[in-house]
């Protein structure tokens, strides 16, 4: 049983998140609905909702790269072969339908992947995939296991401060 008596909300959040991510999609949705009812907290921030189809359409020609991420956000190494391929392929197909173009990029939910998951991503025709390893990309990195920099709702100054020094120096020299 989890208790928040210590007052460390982050630890409680991580413990709940760790348990939820291990569940299959149906059990996870049921658990989240139960928690939402029991906790009855503040309504979700509307700014954090998923994008609408129209918003995705407006982004497709911009500076953003939109890729697949699975259909129901499971931990992929936990899935059987059929379910694994369906999660990746369905997500890719939905993105391609929304954008009316081929999708070649993918992000592993929770950063979870193994050799079998990596092979399934490649089999669907995806050529680039990101993990949750927090560092900048190096020339010899595996294109199906790239690290990435997590970005929050930061100002440009906060974003620049979060970049590794080598990235900042390289970016500054490219701008000059």
Structure description:
- The mean pLDDT is 84.
- The chain has seven helices and two strands.
- The chain is 46% helix and 3% strand.
- It has 176 residues and is mostly helical.
- A two-stranded parallel ribbon has the order 1-2.
- 11% of the residues are buried.
- It has two domains: 38 residues, no CATH class; 110 residues, Glycoside hydrolase/deacetylase (TIM Barrel), CATH 3.20.20.
- α5 links the parallel β1 and β2.
Name the helix and strand elements from N-terminus to C-terminus, one letter apiece.
HHHHEHEHH
CATH class of the largest domain: Alpha Beta
Shape: globular
Give average pLDDT, whole number.
Answer: 84
* Measured distance between first and last alpha carbons: 56 Å
What is CATH's topology name of the largest domain?
Answer: TIM Barrel
Provide the number of structural domains. Answer: 2
What's the multimeric state?
A: single chain
Strand count: 2
Query: What's the helical proportion of residues?
Result: 40-55%
- If helices are DSSP runs of H or I spanning 4 or more residues, what is the number of helices? 7
Instruction: Tell me the radius of gyration.
Output: 19 Å
Please list the strands of the largest sheet in the order they lie side by side.
Answer: 1-2
Task: Report the sheet-strand fraction.
Answer: under 5%
